[in-house]
Amino acid sequence: MASVTMAKALNTAMRDAMEADDRVVLLGEDVGTLGGVFRITDGLQKDFGEHRVMDTPLAESAIMGISIGLAMRGYRPVPEMQFDGFSYPALDQVISHLAKYRNRSRGTQAMPVVCRIPYGGGIGAVEHHSESPETYYAHTAGLKVVTPSSPADAYSLLRQSIDAEDPVIFLEPKRRYWLKQELDLPVTTEPIGRARVLREGSDLTLVAYGPMVKVAMDTATAAAEEGLASLEVVDLRSLVPLDEETLVASVERTGRMVVVHEASEFLGMGAEIAARVTEQAFLSLEAPVLRCTGLDIPYPPAKLEEAHLPGVDRVLWTVQRSLDY
Known about the structure:
Blueprint: E1 2-5, H1 6-20, E2 24-28, H2 44-48, E3 53-55, H3 60-72, E4 76-80, H4 91-98, H5 101-104, E5 114-119, H6 134-138, E6 144-146, H7 151-163, E7 168-173, E8 180-183, E9 196-199, E10 204-208, H8 212-225, E11 231-235, E12 238-240, H9 244-254, E13 257-264, H10 269-281, E14 290-294, H11 305-308, H12 312-324
Parallel strand pairs: 2-3, 2-4, 5-7, 6-7, 10-11, 10-13, 13-14
Antiparallel strand pairs: 1-8, 6-12, 9-11
Helix pairs in contact: 1-7, 3-4, 8-12, 9-10
């Protein structure tokens, strides 16, 4: 086995997909010559040519519009939005067309577009470079929304997304790009729509996704070392479709749940998870489903992001609130 970073896993996934299917094309700002801001597409233009790895103008709406047109012509485009906050100019194309073409055509027009978006904070950047836009996409019917937390899932979920006939918003936790894992590529993990229990526990379920999975695992370790509680950790992996079965089964075992995410609390993924778990497992709950999230403010300056984002201490405090209920 080799030590593989998430960045390398994503790069290899795109390389393997392009070798397997010449309809797969990449496009975005600086994805070609530069290899992307985070070097995720490094070397791909050199090996596959400018006709398959295309640098675009700084125009996210155009990037998405071109991708939709390419899909209608039979290609399988993988556009990149350079940063999370830069994806907003493309929302009209995503909401009005990308998400609706399959339904609009009564199922006759597939829309195999995978929109890669580096997202989340923790890298010392400013607003528009550290945001968590997942709720916008999860709320838009017609889109799949996935986010890996490990190199293995990064490779497998990206390959599955490129093979899908429906559009996928692929959220890449940029602070985890250099997270390493011992594995051999290619690798296949659980399918889109399936969560994974990373750590079993008996007292409370911690639910996280993307960049917050490591925080949840570190919290579970700290809680065990302090004798506070035995925490079960669930990595969602897929926000849409959402694996309600795994969430309900976990809370039926533990009786308590805390959802952790970087995005603001109000109308975030935590609210939807809390509602669905409460509806389906109300009699199993010993306390309300609680949320530990980013603050309900615009993303702050870099020197304040540590106070804005959930860390182990804040998650432990939320866990204690649930246990004290």
